[in-house]
Structure formats: structure tokens, C-alpha cells
Amino acid sequence: LAKTTQPISMDSYEGQEVNITCSHNNIATNDYITWYQQFPSQGPRFIIQGYKTKVTNEVASLFIPADRKSSTLSLPRVSLSDTAVYYCLVGGTGGFKTIFGAGTRLFVKA
Amino acid sequence: NAGVMQNPRHLVRRRGQEARLRCSPMKGHSHVYWYRQLPEEGLKFMVYLQKENIIDESGMPKERFSAEFPKEGPSILRIQQVVRGDSAAYFCASSPLPGDRGGTEAFFGQGTRLTVV
Known about the structure:
The complex is a heterodimer of chains A (about 110) and B (about 120).
Chain A: E1 9-13, E2 18-23, E3 32-38, E4 45-50, E5 53-56, E6 61-64, E7 70-75, E8 84-91, E9 104-109
Parallel strand pairs in A: 1-9
Antiparallel strand pairs in A: 2-7, 3-4, 3-8, 5-6, 6-7, 8-9
Chain B: E1 5-7, E2 10-13, E3 19-24, E4 31-37, E5 43-50, E6 53-56, E7 65-68, E8 75-79, E9 88-95, E10 107-108, E11 112-116
Parallel strand pairs in B: 2-11
Antiparallel strand pairs in B: 1-3, 3-8, 4-5, 4-9, 5-6, 7-8, 9-10, 9-11
């Protein structure tokens, strides 16, 4: 299973764009990259998933370079409610068997 | 369409007792996954089940832990003779497609917080 590395924490202010990068140097050919968001005392919530290039939905964008050894989750104009832990998962299973790791704790300040 | 339902939300057990955690997947989902989360840590995969079958239990402790997903009813994670180290949040997720198929999204429940006293 591909191991991922993310920053432990990040700070931002309301209205800013936040980019969280995840490294996954040993990603396999059939692996997808999936990001989840988790609030305290809640289960993770799917944000976005991609295989290559760029994926965008109503919540975020996911940028994946050609070598796929990293990916960047982009959250446009964050608000206080975006304060949460963000997990990057890599796996052919959609990441389900992957150890989530500690994730990135994003703090959004007013 | 209700989401993934877990119960109870909170469970307190004395050391040596049994804990039974239930998970009802989303309607139409036949693939269930269980995870354990310790405070300030990420989720760790425990087991992947399909109706009446255990597909992958590589993350399950070898003793005291078991899981099932019967043809009818919820998936059950059972912990026998609980110890203080079992205290954690246990999350269940379900998906409509097999877990080994890329591009599949998993939907998580709210978790069960087990406290062993």
C-alpha cells in the first residue's frame, strides 16, 4: 500500500485559498487518490477523488502532476467551518485499506 | 436514503466484558469496512466484509476481535474481554462497489465511542 506524507497542521484565514499537498512516491499504476475531511466526533466525509491531472467539484479541486507522486487539495475561499482534519489516501481500493495516517489539521481563523 | 448508521454512539464497558458494535450500511451497499481511531490519530483499517463473507481482515487483532456481516441485519464488530487499550472510536463505512475497484467512494457512519473502565 502506498504510504502518504502530509503536513501535520496548517493555519489560514477566512476567505483565503488553502492548498494541502500530499506526497505518495510509491503510488501504483492502478491507485486512485482520495481526500476525506473529518470534524471532531464525526466520521470522515468524502471530498474528492482523482487519478491524474485535475479534478474539480463544488467543494474543492485536486491537482495531480504527471508523475502522480504527489497531489494537492485546493480549498477555495475557506471559512471557519472548514476547520477540520484532511486525509489523503492512496490505493487501488479507493484507499479503503489504507491507514489514514494523522492527516493535516487545518485551522481557519477569522 | 439514510446514511451509514452506527449504534450505539457511545458504549461503556468494564474490563473483561464484551462489546458489540453495529453498523447498518447505506441502502444498496453490500461492502462494509471497519476502522479504529485513537485520540489525535488517523483511522486504521480493521476489516472489509461483503454480505456473509470476510474479504480482508488483515487489520484485525488476532485475538478477541471478530466481525460479521450476515445476509440479514447489520454488520457487527465484536470485542470480547475488553481491555482499557480497546478504548477508541470505531467507524464503519460502506460502498456500493467492491473495495478493490478504483474510483469507489466510501460513506462513513458517525462512529461508536467505546470506553473501557
